Amino acid sequence: MTLPIHVGLSQVADRYDGFILDLWGVVHDGVAPYPGVPECLAALKARGKKICLLSNAPRRVAAAKAKLDGMGLDAGLYDFLYTSGEASFEALRDPPDAWHAALGPRLFHIGPPRDNDVYDSLPGRVRVDTPDQADFVVNTGIDDFDETLADYEPVLQACAARRLPMLCANPDLVVVVGTKMVICAGELARRYEELGGSVAWHGKPFPSVYRRCFQLLGGWTRRGCWRWGTACAPTWPGPMPPASTACWSPGASTGKNWAPDGARPPTRAPWRGCWKPPHSAPPASSRPWSGKDGGRHRDSNTSSARSNTGE
């Protein structure tokens, strides 16, 4: 199958009523918005389009909004913002299934203090200092960008030895911060599954977060929705919903350039031009999912690619 090349959202804007846009790798690079992004969002809004920004940030919406505000991306440029951290908070507050309902009150947090809002306002949840004291694990990622998977092997082994269930608040494997490749919570959770641990995944690419985005957008619209992501493999598992389209931005999740013949994709404002690769672009590493989609158990025989993007 040959993928079409779209030279900007202006080419497709009038075909859709709503847009679901990734943050890291589409809207910003972790530090600042990409050139032309504010103008692109404003142009969509001027045409009456609904915009939902979707992030795998392992923190709640208020924290993600504060970061966007700090980048100069005013809330008036979009309609809704949803994060994997918010999805995790909601699952802990209102357990969607027996797996989440069975979690005890004591949690061990793997991740930095900035992600504490995933659980710290929940009644009946108490953070403990060691796996030996815990009923389950909340995994939001690494503490320092210089850390590697090997740094977390001892604590993952300790959690696995106690058979603690793990809630992963960011399924991403890696993210590029500036020019640095950094592992995410998804890489820790992937290793935890290898150790035999049980993991519930909240965030892209699982369908549950897209269902929530469509709820925010008001349900299915007559002309459907455009989903713009960054993973080298499709980030919409399973059959595409009706009247919906997924678009991939290459390079953002890997720091590499997949342009033909090694040529660098042109740098253009998103409204005027965004490069989309031909069918020969190399696929990302992926493996079948065998965890839980936002609390919904997935058949271990169901194959769907894991996102390897950042926020």
Order of helices and strands: EHEHEHHEEEHEEEHEHEEEE
Mean of pLDDT: 76
The level 1 CATH classification of the largest domain is Alpha Beta
Helix content: 10-25%
Q: What is the global morphology?
A: globular
Low-pLDDT stretches: 228-291, 295-310
What is the straight-line distance between the termini?
A: 29 Å
User: How many separate domains make up the residues?
Assistant: 2
As laid out across the biggest beta sheet, the strand order is: 5-4-6-7-10-13-14
> So, CATH architecture of the largest domain?
3-Layer(aba) Sandwich
How many E-type strands? 14
Number of DSSP helices? 7
Under CATH, the homologous superfamily of the largest domain reads HAD superfamily/HAD-like
CATH topology name of the largest domain, in short, is Rossmann fold
Please report which band the strand proportion falls in: under 5%, 5-15%, 15-25%, 25-35%, 35-45% or over 45%.
Answer: 15-25%
Write the layout of secondary structure elements.
Layout: E1 18-22, H1 37-46, E2 50-55, H2 61-70, E3 80-83, H3 84-93, H4 98-101, E4 106-110, E5 126-128, E6 136-139, H5 149-161, E7 166-168, E8 174-177, E9 180-183, H6 185-194, E10 199-201, H7 207-216, E11 225-229, E12 244-248, E13 292-293, E14 296-297
Parallel strand pairs: 1-2, 1-11, 2-3, 4-5, 4-6, 6-7, 7-10, 10-13, 11-12
Antiparallel strand pairs: 8-9, 13-14
Helix pairs in contact: 5-6
Short characterization:
With 311 residues, this protein is α/β, with parallel strands linked by helices.
